[in-house]
Amino acid sequence: MTLTLPAQIARRVANEAVYASWAYRRGVIGLDPPWVVAQIGRAMWRHGMLGGIPAIAALRHGRDQAAIIDELGTMTYGELDDAANALANHWRTAGLRPGDGISILARNHRWFLVATYAAARCGARIVLLNTDFAGPQIRDVAAREGTDFLVHDDEYGALLEGVETRLGRLRAWTDDTSERGADSVAGIVARGDTTPAPRAGVDPKVVLLTSGTTGTPKGAPRAEPRSLAPIGALLSRVPFEAKGTLVLPAPMFHTLGFAQALLNGSLGATLVVRRRFDPALVLEDLSTHRATGMVCVPVMLQKMVELGEDAFAAADLSRLTAIFVAGSQLGAELAVRSTSLFGPVLHNMYGSTEVAYATIAVPEDLAAEPGCVGQPVMGAVVKIFGDDGTEVPAGTTGRIFVGNDFQFEGYTGGGDKDRIDGLMSTGDVGHFDRRGRLFIDGRDDDMIVSGGENVFPGEIEELLYTHDAVREAAAIGVADERFGQRLRAFVVLNEGADLSEDEVKAFVSSNLARYKTPREVVFLDELPRNPTGKVLKRKLAELPTG
Questions:
Q1: Average predicted confidence (pLDDT) for the chain
Q2: 461 CB-near residues (< 8 Å, 6+ apart)
Q3: Is the pLDDT of residue 190 over 90?
């Protein structure tokens, strides 16, 4: 049923009121004195919603409130605001125009955020490059997305040959952290003009790249939000609060880490980051800083869980209220193990670069059904459609489609996701249970037909993870002359464990239908993954067997 225009407006106003109430409850907005409200309004008018985050946090929570802790120490919101102004003023003087492209190739550290906020204050098109890219990928994406200025860590310098920029480059993290040369962000900030950057008059746009697990990464642009929906929807489910401490091992170039860094900036929270992930150091950071939250991808959570009970017994996790995990499938086994060590604080989000949030499983959901991804967040519509494009009942597997107020605008290189009735395909298949919880059954392009039967590799992977000897598992479909396709499983064993191919097959056949048993089992030392933990199945398909 299509709503009339007045009904649509009424619903939008009602939803915004609820989003605002959650933003108020968590501390994104508050009852500030009139003069502070006026200054916040001026900061938003000058810098926009994204570029204004550090200025507004400094106004609401104090310029001395810690914004980020990295290997260089602590940077306050006042210092972050000044640094963003200095870099934005430098870029404007150098000839950067609103709408020009700034590409950022950097790990998690302060200069990543400084460059992001400065670019937003210039009304730039911000392209976040994957730190796992090889040289050809960097060149291709930088050229396709448009790069007038490039910000990069020193370690990627050798990969940048052939990357053309109209206005030049700046180094972000330098090998010599004491160096503050004219070609470094630190040098510009140390000597720059920190007066508020002039108003760009153009909203910035952020280009986030898809994971590229099955092909070339695509650019998924997002305009600056004009609604509290992205903030209110998440905070209605996840208890992040103002002036908390968030440990953020998830890479900030990816949608998950980027969005949560900005959200917690809006909360005036302190981000604790390191350039490289080390599970023991992340657990130490949670304890030392008495963190209230953590954002990570499942493979990071898995490596932390593998530290064992003794490591957790020595850590102070008394203030930890929320672990927010997304980016790839969590799985029931890891959900149970994580909850046993961290406590009932796990929040499992399902979405994608294109659709943003779809569902979030809160601790109560995971206690009842650890394999689920929860129920739709406020403002999101999630439906399961069959091959004929009609909605299927609960318990039936079909393609997942999502609608909300913060989807992407279509790929920068052209093309779009499939859409039905205004809802966008996530590229996954799944089903709802009778309580409205969503379960992911696999990728819609992963499904194989073996001997006339539909098989989703994800079901086999989930089962293999429950075997005591198995640390990691993946499955793909390969061509078979007799059956059309067959399953090939890839298994990584726990240290010291012993398991044969026949034992893997017997374990699957004793728990699932016969046609779901893999015809081959390949043992590996590790699965190929991208920086967000997704298994690169195209790499698995290229591996020699036999």
A1: 89
A2: 331, 473, 474, 475
A3: yes
What is the residue whose two structure tokens read 């672990």? 323
Strands 101-105 and 149-152: parallel
* Side chain identity, residue 418: D
State the alpha helices, DSSP H only, in 357-445. Answer: 363-368
Using CA of residue 284, residue 244, residue 209, residue 92, what is the dihedral sign? negative
Enclosing H/E stretch for 287? helix 279-288
The alpha carbon of 38 is separated from its chain's Cα centroid by a whole number of angstroms, namely 33
Residues 54/245, Cβ–Cβ less than 8 Å:
no
What pLDDT is stored for residue 415 in this prediction? 59
Domains along the chain with CATH numbers: 5-364 (3.40.50.12780), 379-443 (2.30.38.10), 448-542 (3.30.300.30)
- In three state form, how does the secondary structure of 45-60 look? HHHHHHHCHHHHHHHH
Distance between CA atoms of residues 518 and 501, nearest Å: 10
Q: What is the C-alpha separation between 505 and 348, in angstroms, rounded?
A: 30
DSSP code for 535: B
In this structure, the strands spanning 125-128 and 423-432 are unpaired
Which amino acid type is present at position 454? N
Beta-carbon count within 10 A of 156 CB = 21
DSSP conformational letter for 487 = E
Neighbour tally for 452: CB within 10 Å: 8
- Two tokens, residue 147: 């790069």
Instruction: Give the tokens for residue 153.
Output: 């860590």
Percent of the chain topping pLDDT 90: 58
Give all strands of the β-sheet with 484-493 in edge-to-edge order.
470-480, 484-493, 520-523
Average pLDDT over residues 30-44: 93
Q: Which residue has the tokens 């004793």?
A: 510
Angstrom distance (rounded) from CA 360 to CA 353: 15
State the Cα–Cα distance between residues 180 and 171, nearest whole angstrom: 10
Residue 416 has pLDDT above 70, yes or no: no
What is the DSSP secondary structure assignment for residue 148, as one 8-state letter? S
Type of residue numbered 31:
L
Distance CA 195, CA 431 (A): 53
Cα separation, 212 vs 254, in Å, equals 12
CA distance linking residue 44 with residue 326, whole number of Å: 30
Q: Do residues 248 and 257 touch, judged by C-beta distance below 8 A?
A: yes
Helix (H, G, I), strand (E, B) or coil at 465: coil
Place of tokens 């917690």: 264
Element (H, E) at 399: strand 398-403
Please tell me the pTM assigned to this model.
0.84
The strand order across the sheet containing 375-376 reads 73-76, 66-70, 270-272, 245-247, 293-296, 322-325, 346-352, 356-361, 375-376
Task: Give the distance, in angstroms, between the CA of residue 518 and the centroid of all CA atoms in the same chain.
Answer: 32
